[in-house]
Amino acid sequence: MLYLLAKDAVELYDWDTSHAKGKEAQSRKMDQSMVKSRLGASWCRGTRLYIYVVDSLDRERLGKAKQEFQEIIKDPFMLNSIILVFANKQDMRGAMSPREVCEGLGLFDLKNRKWHIQGTCALRGDGLYEGLDWLSSTLKDVKAAGFTSVGHSF
C-alpha cells in the first residue's frame, strides 16, 4: 500500500505483488471507501510494512493526511507493521521538514511501533535508497530476532 498526498486529493495506490511471480506487479488507484472496506475485511492481516508518502509542500492537507494515516495504522491488523514515511519534495522552497511532517502525522505519539521518516526528492531519487535501506535492515533485524511481528520487540 502506498499513499500519495497531492494538492487536490489524497490518493492510495495498491500494489499487489503477492501473486506476481514472473509477472509485473499490478497497481490500481483506490478511494477511501475501498480502503475502509478492505480494512474491515481483514485485508491488512499479516502486513509487515507500510510506506506512506507525504507531499511536504501541502501544509493545508496535512491534517487530513494525519487522520487517514492514523486510521490505517490503528487498525488491529496493522498494529505490528513497520512504518516508513517519505517526506517528499524536500528540494522545494517552503517544504515542511521531515520533523514537521513527523509532528503533523503524530509519529512521535506512536508507542511500541518501529517507524522511520525519510526526507526525499522522488524526481531525483534523493532519500529513496536511504529509506528503503532502513526498511530492509529493520525487516532483517526482526527476522533475525525470530519475531513474527515487530510489535513484540519494540
Automatic annotation (TrEMBL):
SMART domains: ARF (SM00177)
The organism's place on the tree of life at top rank: Eukaryota
Keywords: ER-Golgi transport, Golgi apparatus, GTP-binding, Lipoprotein, Myristate, Nucleotide-binding, Protein transport, Transport
Cellular component GO terms, alphabetical: Golgi apparatus
MF terms (GO), sorted A to Z: GTP binding; GTPase activity; phospholipase activator activity
Pfam families the record matches: Arf
Gene3D superfamilies given in the database record: P-loop containing nucleotide triphosphate hydrolases
Name of the protein in question: ADP-ribosylation factor
Annotated source species: Brassica carinata (Ethiopian mustard)
